[in-house]
Amino acid sequence: MSLLDIKDLTVRYGGIGALRGLSLRLEAGELLMVTGPNGAGKSTLTKAIAGLVKPQGGRIVFDGHLVTGRAPETVAALGISMVPEGRQVFGSMTVLENLRVGTGMRRDRLAAAADLEYVHDLFPLLKERSHSQAGLLSGGQQQMLVIARALMTGPKLLIIDEPSLGLAPKVTDQVYEVLLRLRQERQLTLLIVEQSSTRAVLTGGRMVMLREGGIVLEGDPRAIPARTMQQAYFGIEDSEVTA
Ligand code: ATP
Questions:
Q1: pLDDT digit string, tens, across residues 88-113
Q2: DSSP classification of residue 91
């Protein structure tokens, strides 16, 4: 059984079809990169999984539980943690207070304390800056903080929407180093959204490319020819491409 099994998912905003019968599976421990141009439906997919938008059709099964249309807190309690686009730290709270928000729902206090140690080991800077105001951190540091906060919920699946947005390539590399370490050390299942497939090629794992609410390309990003990627991304037929 897949950890996440999405079948025929349809989401519409008024008359706009954001997802049109999308089906997707994610195995435990897998890294899935979801790419695609503006408006392809990537964020909508993450929001539908996390319970933030209600689908009009289809089903989402996570870890054996039907979660379609369930409330975000129910989905989170089952082990899905989502880092939305735009790094929403609680700016006036300290770094440590932000991390403690992540443990708010947990009953396993000992495991939560161990996770705080692990997160501090992953991001030593967050330990150093424990008592600094989170709003004063740089963009890259805030991205690390929201990922760390999501980890503090003890998730089985971590979803991150465009972690590279607004970050310098070098800082993005650092964020991805940590994500790959997490996957290796904790076998954490990751679903990461990035607009460009270049990051998927650098990172590896499996890629699905969305366009106009459906999957147009799927596979090992390192094995897909660049030209095929471009055609799928821009929605152009072979005959339209000039050599
Ligand atoms: P981006 O990279 O620009 O965030 P995306 O691939 O994440 O794009 P979505 O944000 O999921 O795409 O948007 C899919 C479609 O749904 C687009 O046509 C978008 O304009 C529309 N859409 C998204 N959110 C809303 C909303 N709250 N109300 C109305 N339409 C929306």
A1: 899 999 999 999 987 877 777 788 88
A2: T
Contact 232, 212 (CB under 8 A): no
Q: Is the CB of 42 under 6 A from ligand 1?
A: yes
Which atom of ligand 1 is nearest to 36's Cα?
A: 6
Q: Give 77 Cα–ligand 1 centroid separation in angstroms.
A: 26
- Residue 178: left if φ>0, alpha if ψ -120 to 50, beta else—which one? alpha
Answer whether 53 contacts ligand 1 (Cβ < 6 A): no
How many Cα atoms sit within 13 Å of 243 on the Cβ side? 0
pLDDT of 243 above 50: no
Please tell me the distance from the alpha carbon of residue 168 to that of residue 86, in angstroms, as a whole number. Answer: 15
CB of 40 closer than 6 angstroms to any ligand 1 atom: yes
